[in-house]
Amino acid sequence: MTRKLVIPAVAAFFVVTWVAAARSQTQGPTSLGFKKRFVIEVRNPGPVALESYPIVLSVETIRAFAPDFNSFNYAIFDEAGGGYQLVPSQADDLDRDRAHEEIVFIRTLPASSTTRLACYYSAKGAFQLMMSTPKAGARLLGGGPAGILAGWESNLAGFKFVDGRVEAYGKLYPGLVLSKAAKDDAKLQEWGLDILAGGGSLGLGGLSAWEGGTAVPLAGAGAGGGFTVQRTVLASGPLRALVKVEYSSPLPGARGSGTVVLFSAFADNIFCRQDIHPGPGAGRRGEARPGARRGPAAALRRAAGAAAGGPRPRARRRRLPVGAAGRADRARRGRARALG
Predict the structure, then answer these.
(1) Would 165 disulfide with which of 69, 141, 198, 277, CB 3.0-4.6 Å?
(2) CATH 2.60.40.1180 residue ranges for the chain
(3) What is the H or E stretch that residue 141 is in?
(4) Residue 234, CB half-sphere, CA atoms under 13 Å: how many?
């Protein structure tokens, strides 16, 4: 008997379905000791292809129909063409209880398509998933005016949370660079530099609470409410980097206290994802927009030209786009839904 579970995804770009099925094989993944198999269907009904799209699966949802699923002993394969191509994936323990809550993998989804993959697993034991080159990472970066900084990156873009705001790193070549980032990262280094300094603003992502019609930052310059900020690295690759930032205030009824923000970056992607979980006193009104000031765009363009062996472009005074972050800097100036 075949069972199907449909889960709506963020922004309704696709739905993920699992079809539980029995299949006997004498070769392939079963030779690695896997005993059971189910199919993952990723549907992209839209007219636009989604390149290197991150898929996040809930282990709890999988176990709703496969109770013995073992997140320590599984592997995902693309069986197109009759072969078995391993799909790299990452199982994350988000609450440090020694159990995985989510599984992440990256796939390009053609327009108006259904991508079918097979997940093999065994109820007992463990299987080591290997990747030759990690493409995401996160780490705490040392002290700043507001305490410990946190950074997260993919192989294509990097970000950091400092003094209540998010800033972006410009990279001169693909790869992970947080381990190389110096304290003064606004100066050009061999890998790049911090190119979108937030200054006294909220940068590419920060939270403010509305107090008497005025937006007051929860952390950093101009912050109110005596907030403390706790930063935790939840996942550090190889496919997803995830940092949790928690805001808390000792003042009774402080607006925004208890709010949690999850910052993430995914392999082969240039964007920074932010999941905001408002605290009990957040209120209803919110605004989401970048606030980066002009960065050292000219220095990065000159360095990029030199690294490529080409002419150095003439410096121009303008905002430097950094993938999704740069496009947002120009386009996302209106009101949106966030914390208020």
Answers:
(1) 198
(2) 3-121
(3) strand 136-144
(4) 25
